[in-house]
């Protein structure tokens, strides 16, 4: 995990994103659920989604595993699709207005008029021609390419690895709200995990709660204005043959304050086979499939150990 300064993302873009996120999350649960339809996906209780965007099943004790968060998932390669179908579908607020208009036009007046009022109440009527998410996505893509090219050079990746190990069209944004939690000592915003990505880039507000596991203890990742946090993920660990390690981190919840963070996650190309001496060759899809099975059967992600060549194998003794 490392911190980025001078990343070139304008401060007012970050501020505006966070303000809009607060407004969106302040709407009713039902409204949010109805608002975000494919490809933007609203989720709550777990950030673990399948590749097709549905919440992953997490085994029998789902209730106890619930994370104290909600969010929406924005696949960046689909934002141009919005643009193509409807030039208004470019930002948070625009997505809203378009959804409301469409449904009013579809004859279901009353609920969507109520929705319209709800939108107006939080100030989303004006200024609907901005594209905050797309703009932020463009910055994240630029930063991801810069970070990856430095690492690829360091690791002597030649084509095709240097080309296929990072595929920016796979990038997506996650906008999270961690809710205030009266039982903050018994719940997690996100439980300890490693990211499955090549790497992830986070922007957090000033509330704090992110922690990283370092030298056998949990360390707070203090919020610092205008900085981004980069987490190296599982794919990076495998492709670097453990030279770079996927960082274990978690998010605590706060009894008094809600927290907003925005994550960007990027993956290898769909057909990229990750090859290194310590791991069996695998694609990101293989990794996800294994993770889904583990979530259902073991109740948690096992991740990279499943793909290690030196993985211990159990033999039954007669
Ligand atoms: O909200 C944060 O700061 C961290 C989010 C995170 O770890 C994740 O989405 O994987
Ligand atoms: Fe994470």
Automatic annotation (TrEMBL):
<dbReference type="Pfam" id="PF03171">
    <property type="entry name" value="2OG-FeII_Oxy"/>
</dbReference>
<keyword id="KW-0479">Metal-binding</keyword>
<protein>
    <recommendedName>
        <fullName>Fe2OG dioxygenase domain-containing protein</fullName>
    </recommendedName>
</protein>
<dbReference type="InterPro" id="IPR027443">
    <property type="entry name" value="IPNS-like_sf"/>
</dbReference>
<dbReference type="InterPro" id="IPR005123">
    <property type="entry name" value="Oxoglu/Fe-dep_dioxygenase_dom"/>
</dbReference>
<dbReference type="InterPro" id="IPR050231">
    <property type="entry name" value="Iron_ascorbate_oxido_reductase"/>
</dbReference>
<feature type="domain" description="Fe2OG dioxygenase">
    <location>
        <begin position="168"/>
        <end position="268"/>
    </location>
</feature>
<comment type="similarity">
    <text>Belongs to the iron/ascorbate-dependent oxidoreductase family.</text>
</comment>
<keyword id="KW-0408">Iron</keyword>
<dbReference type="InterPro" id="IPR044861">
    <property type="entry name" value="IPNS-like_FE2OG_OXY"/>
</dbReference>
<keyword id="KW-0560">Oxidoreductase</keyword>
């Amino acid at each position: 995990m490392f911190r980025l300064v001078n990343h070139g993302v304008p401060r007012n873009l970050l501020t505006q994103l966070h303000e809009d996120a607060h407004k969106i999350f302040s709407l009713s649960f039902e409204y949010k659920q109805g608002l975000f339809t494919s490809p933007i996906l609203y989720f709550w209780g777990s950030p673990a989604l399948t590749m097709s965007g549905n919440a992953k099943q997490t085994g029998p004790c789902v209730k106890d595993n619930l994370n104290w968060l909600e969010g929406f998932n924005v696949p960046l390669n689909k934002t141009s699709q919005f643009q193509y179908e409807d030039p208004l579908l470019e930002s948070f607020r625009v997505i809203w207005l378009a959804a409301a208009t469409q449904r009013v036009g579809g004859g279901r007046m009353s609920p969507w008029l109520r929705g319209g009022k709800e939108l107006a109440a939080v100030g989303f009527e004006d200024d609907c021609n901005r594209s905050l998410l797309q703009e932020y996505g463009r910055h994240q893509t630029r930063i991801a390419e810069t970070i990856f090219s430095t690492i690829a050079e360091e690791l002597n990746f030649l084509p095709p690895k240097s080309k296929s190990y990072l595929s920016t069209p796979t990038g997506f944004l996650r906008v999270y709200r961690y809710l205030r939690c009266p039982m903050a000592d018994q719940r997690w915003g996100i439980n300890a995990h490693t990211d499955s990505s090549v790497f992830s880039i986070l922007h957090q507000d000033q509330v704090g709660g992110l922690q990283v596991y370092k030298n056998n203890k949990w360390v707070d990742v203090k919020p610092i204005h205008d900085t981004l946090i980069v987490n190296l993920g599982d794919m990076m660990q495998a492709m670097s043959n453990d030279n770079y390690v996927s960082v274990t981190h978690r998010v605590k919840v706060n009894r008094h304050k809600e927290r907003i963070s925005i994550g960007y996650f990027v993956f290898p190309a769909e057909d990229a086979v990750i090859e290194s001496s310590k791991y069996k060759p695998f694609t990101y899809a293989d990794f996800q499939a294994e993770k889904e099975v583990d979530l259902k059967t073991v109740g948690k992600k096992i991740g990279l150990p499943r793909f290690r060549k030196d993985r211990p194998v159990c033999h039954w003794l007669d």
